[in-house]
Amino acid sequence: MNMLRIGDYSAWVSVEGKGREVYGVERTSDNSLTCWIASEVGKKFAVNWYNTRREIALQGTVIIDGMVCDNHIMLDAPHYPDKPNGVGVSYTRTSDYTRRDFMFSKINITDDDAYLDTIDLAMNIGTITLELWRLHVTSVKTQVLEHKYGGPVLEGQIVHERSKKAGAHHVKFGKEYASAPPTMDLVQGYNMDQLPYLTFTFKYRPMEILMANGIVPRSAMHLVPLQNLQTAREIRQLEERLRQLRSGGNKPNSSPRIKVEPGRHHRDLPQVIDLTHLD
């Protein structure tokens, strides 16, 4: 299975146009699903959602590693029958004429105690969340998008090795490249509810860690490239060292150093187009 689904609504994370397999799917409430997916260093990805009937207008909020990265609108079919039923978000705009793609990356791990404050800050790393909000639309205007400057930026992370994120990945924006400003439907309106109408959460880790934690069965070992098996052993050694540290074990004397970790996997899904944006 490579998507999450609640009624007419489905969501998935795609890499190179193929949906990531989802594991350990849990319904955390009537309107919320969570799962695990495998991340792969250097791979760009998109967050996608599809609404079979489009009975209501929805604002889709994409939250990556705890940071709001995008707001898009899917207009309702009764008032806007010619609009698409699917949306895909794979980048953030950095100016009127440039943008940067979402990309899985290595977390840098250090034993430098100057980074101890990153232990708590790293709690949101490793999650991609899509919140769908019911929207009351007051106006729709088609025009060339005018970029709003000063938005958040996802860059390389360094966390202390005592963090539970040791051995994991995070998301950063890829290299900036030129892209002309699109003509889009700029929507004005307001959310109808105090809480999201639907929430889909994708927790991502390297495939080796998903297997080590029993989220993916060992029978799926063929999905991991042979060159990554050494990395899996290194991750297990790091996990053992972390267990010793948390239980009060002595820390070896050494100068601060940075360690990095990798992961992998994929599958097919329909393409969606990105046409609307919240003003």
How would you portray this structure in words?
Strands 4, 5, 7, 8, 13, 17, 18 and 20 form an eight-stranded mixed β-sheet that branches. Strands 1, 2, 3, 6 and 9 form a five-stranded antiparallel β-sheet that branches. Strands 10, 11, 15 and 16 form a four-stranded antiparallel β-sheet that branches. It is built from three helices and 20 strands. The protein has one domain. It is 10% helix and 43% strand. It has 279 residues and is mainly beta. The relative contact order is 0.24. The model is unreliable at 225-229 and 250-279 (pLDDT under 50). Residues 243-270 are annotated as: Disordered. InterPro entries: DUF7918 (IPR057678).
Give the ordered list of helices and strands: EEEEEEEEEEEEHEEEEEEHHEE
Strand content: 35-45%
Question: Structural class, judged by helices and strands?
Answer: mainly beta
Morphology: globular
Give average pLDDT, whole number: 78
- Compute the separation of the termini in Å: 34 Å
Number of β-strand runs: 20
Q: Which segments are poorly predicted (pLDDT under 50) over 5 or more consecutive residues?
A: 225-229, 250-279
Number of helices: 3
Radius of gyration (CA) equals 20 Å
Number of domains: 1
Helix content percent band: 10-25%
Main sheet makeup:
8 strands, mixed
Secondary structure topology:
Blueprint: E1 4-6, E2 9-15, E3 18-19, E4 23-29, E5 32-39, E6 45-51, E7 58-64, E8 67-74, E9 86-89, E10 91-95, E11 98-106, E12 108-110, H1 118-121, E13 127-144, E14 158-160, E15 169-173, E16 177-178, E17 183-191, E18 198-206, H2 207-212, H3 229-246, E19 258-259, E20 276-278
Parallel strand pairs: 5-18, 12-14, 17-20
Antiparallel strand pairs: 1-2, 2-3, 2-6, 4-5, 6-9, 7-8, 7-13, 10-11, 11-15, 11-16, 12-19, 13-17, 13-18
